[in-house]
Amino acid sequence: MNKVTVSTPGKLMLFGEHAVVYGHPCIVTAVDQRIRLAAEVLDSPDFILEAGDVEVTNYTKQISELGQGDVPKGAQFVEIALKNIYEKFDLGEGLRITTASEFSSKFGFGSSSAITVCVVKALSELFDLKLDNKEIFDSAYKTVLDIQGKGSGFDVAAGIYGGCLYFVTGGKVIEPLIIKELPLIVGYSGVKADTVTLMNQVKAKASKYPEFIDVLYTEVSKLVEKAKSALLVNDLISFGELMNFNQGLLESMGVSIAKLSAMIYGARDEGAYGAKLSGAGGGDCMIAIAPKDKIAAVQQGITRSGGQVIEVQTNVEGVRIEK
Ligand code: MEV
Q1: Which of 34, 131, 315, 317 is deepest in the core (most CB within 10 A)?
Q2: Ligand 1 pocket by C-beta < 6 Å: which residues?
Q3: Ligand 1 centroid vs 43 CA: distance in angstroms?
Q4: Are residues 154 and 209 in the same domain?
């Protein structure tokens, strides 16, 4: 094989953000907005990247120089993922990679981790490395840590396994939650958040007030367990109520912002069972769960509060080879 196209879904954190970085569990779902990556083996020993949606065009370097010199932000995850796999499996072939995303990298759907998963899966296929899902996880997670320094890896797992997952830091537990559907309402705040900055803010707070932040993490863990049980029996009322608790704890960690909170109240005021921010906070998206007959009103509540409703399907298939 000398050509392959793969795609990986984006993700939305349902419960447990921040606490999951410190050994606690979370629940995440894969969403139907996907990143596509085409990889083609070249005769020359070059790495060529076309990633128009992150403003990288005709980026070229020698395979032997992967990871060296200045790497533009938009090329980082692809290049370091390649370098890690090439080194591990002693590969040398040139490669052209083209990527395209169905969603804006602003939304916080996890474009960096999804692209990393695409690279590892594509190389596994192209060079017959026969990596299983856990090996793909370990390799993609290493790349994310090489670049970001920290992170739980929940987004990497969602991209690989798809569906809804109960996940513990670093992939210690990756448990698919078998559910029929999860009709989530998603609102984008219009504010771009930087996950690493937010993680550092929470870490700084934890050094100053360890006794409070530890309690918050422990309570988040309990909420995750309850939310998992509610989800498995399709008890969306409890699932929503637990979201509200989780939002309160995230407010205490200091990661919500006025805009997100306004959208969350906008959703609750229109009859949502519950609403919370999703991900690092500081911007990006909020999510809500509502009875079917209230969905339109809840969407309007979010729009009225200045948010942009994004239509997504949840619980979708993980990384796959495209025909
Ligand atoms: C960011 O989407 C969620 C965090 O928990 C970071 C992570 O788990 O890697 C803040």
Answers
A1: 34
A2: 13, 17-18, 20-21, 151-152, 154, 195, 199, 279-280
A3: 40
A4: no
